[in-house]
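Person: Please comment on this record:
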Amino acid sequence: MTIVVGHDTAKTRKTLSINGKSISYYSIPAAENAGLGQFSKLPAALKVVLENMLRFEDGKTVSLEDIKAFSTWGANGGKNPREIAYRPARVLMQDFTGVPAVVDLAAMRDGLVALGGDAEKINPLNPVDLVIDHSVMIDEFGNPRAFQMNVDREYERNMERYTFLKWGQNAFNNFRVVPPGTGICHQVNLEYLAQTVWSDTDQNGDEVAYPDTLVGTDSHTTMVNGMAVLGWGVGGIEAEAAMLGQPVSMLIPEVVGFELTGAMLEGTTGTDLVLKVVELLRAKGVVGKFVEFYGEGLNRLPLADRATIANMAPEYGATCGFFPIDDETLRYLRNTGRDEDRIALVEAYAKENGFWRDAEYAPIYTDTLHLDMGTIVPAISGPKRPQDFVALNAAKAAFSSEMKDTFQRPMDKEIAVEGEEYTMRSGKVVIASITSCTNTSNPYVMIGAGLVARKAAALGLNRKPWVKTSLAPGSQVVSAYLEAADLQKDLDAVGFNLVGYGCATCIGNSGPLQPEISQAIAEGDLVATAVLSGNRNFEGRISPDVRANYLASPPLVVAYALAGTMDIDLSSEPLGQDKNGQDVFLKDIWPSSQEVAELVERTVTREAFQSKYADVFKGDEKWQGVDTTQSQTYDWPASSTYVQNPPYFQGMSPEPGVITNIENAKVLAILGDMITTDHISPAGSFKDTTPAGQYLIERQVPVREFNSYGSRRGNHEIMMRGTFANIRIKNEMLDGVEGGYTKGPDGEKSAIFDAAMEYQNNETPLVVFGGEQYGAGSSRDWAAKGTALLGVKAVIAESFERIHRSNLVGMGVIPLEFTNGDTRKSLGLTGEETVTITGLDSVEPLQELPCHITFADGSVKEISLKCRIDTAIEVEYIEHGGVLHYVLRNLAKAA
């Protein structure tokens, strides 16, 4: 990354001497002394953004007034929503979002050539790391062959995508690919890529230190905030713009301080803590805000637990959950193999520039809340949302209540399983998965899970035969310390064999259940359950056979696999019987904190991290054998069902258009509260009866090779057909119908894709209505891309989650919020209405606009909508048809 010297803030540039070496940096105390404002009491998270302003101040994109606004923020009690231009140091991607991003970059090269420009102008200006972690699927489990068989199938399914990514690695500058089988991007970032304080040379050849910052095309990019690296998830669209030098347009955020005190009690884990944090912060309401953790409790909170809390920022709705630099940060950097000179730089820089947390750390916050960690109890979360916290001793009763109230099904219905001696009934656990960077990055819970497995196996306990068990760590280091602790054989003994290094079950790649079990679930319309150590449990995400999903710590995942049902009080009822027929309770196999800590100390070593990351970009023989072409532009294979040239830039004019009013739009869907990006653009498997499945069948792709929506995000034809196609989504235009359906132009039930295409053929604009927290969940850019390609001009909701709102704007779709207490319900919307929105032709940020709704009976109601085009630059994005069009036209003009 090139360092730009601020022209008016050059006097804030100072020098550090570290181990006899001089390095420059932009000093926040010097900015105070220069009269730019009072900054010493700002939270560390906000100081990172302030430093970014000092470093990139040029009088244009970043002005002195932008810098002074941070002083006003403090004086106003933590509020000053001024628009600023922020430039992260780097970009992180995973393959599900990375493939479409590279597809867009390749398409932009074609588009720039068509506009008379040079293809090589389209190149990342900032470093980009793409980690292939979302593609491994759990076809094989519970045996020693599982890992190799799943890897082999991964390459069979995804060779087209991997060939394309290898082309991108060769074609683009500043672009590295971490091959399959290495780990999950956020864990690789935490354990290896991130440095907490970065350094690079400026245009004068001087080395400059600055905070490590990034954006990532996955919402859980926030994980690295646990080691004081400011990062958050953005859609691929926004990430591509950042890669190409476009600053991230944002408002100076509010920062909520979360004070942690006390200490965790015996028998509790970091997972239990984070589930309570998610519940509290969702109730508090922190969407669009930074959360910074502080308090004396941090002195007893390992960085692994901090990373778990930071990871789940999307689940509590915050932009990020940040932990300042302190002694624990340095300890983690050292233990994970970072260079000693880097660690010395982090310490010196943090102390000199006001980023260090010590006993005197007491910044200004917009608002605060408090949690005594001594009150944390063992817990799970579910069955549909991460914030639905359930204490373990209340889990059985809670599930019984969910069966009655939410699922409206009996508990006692038994269905025979063909060829098996057991039966299926609601509540039985059919998936138990130790998965996801959220928890597999934490050696305390992973060692804990291994010890639970060891004690259970020694007593003769095993998983129930209907439970599909899996272990999918986020990095190879986990396997190294499980092997060193001799715990992998114990996990194997109860069915938790290694199935791959990747996201797996957490992102819906749980693989198929035994067909007879799946058939029994369907026959009885049962509520089968899954328990996973992941971060998301949204409807339809984990498996099409599972209706209730619960988040739990890895040790509890093992326990539920042994019990085989949610209809059990693990705190008081036996898991099973030992070899002598004696009852075995959870307390009998639960390890002590001391047992766990001693094994972590002995087996999680600096040498293990250095060894496993020594050749992180090299890959295995399979990756090295992937052949690709050498060319500036991509030779799009016409027959590919994975990678196709998207239509965004084809026939694009050199000049932008104008924003036009939306007139006589029809309603494509009316959706409820907490519609997630999984609902809008699912990542998992799909059937041959769906529009996406029919597309592949027409191209002679057998059902066995369908793979998943996530793996096919490089093909817009698949993704358009998958938009609003989650099997659990409910369009309120249709009574009692689940799945991607609506009423077509003829008023009859139709697949949403088919109806949208009919409306497009008639040149009829479309709108979508939603409830609260529309677009929660993943940073999934296809939730916005698919919406745009279906012809939706605006989404009207009660509130939007941060990333999805930004993605909609980035694709030229206008987000609008109800005002004055109006909702889809209070207005009595049925989908038969026609919608006209005026004032868009002269819109300003956050302006209220008139909306005329014409009902089926001919009556008309005028309401006011708040336009969630939040900043001036976003108005320009909409004028251009999206942020990438904006960047592309500017590059063409500069040619």
The first strand starts at residue 13 and ends at 18. Residues 28 and 644 are 48 Å apart (CA to CA). The chain is about 35% helix and 15% strand. The mean pLDDT is 94.
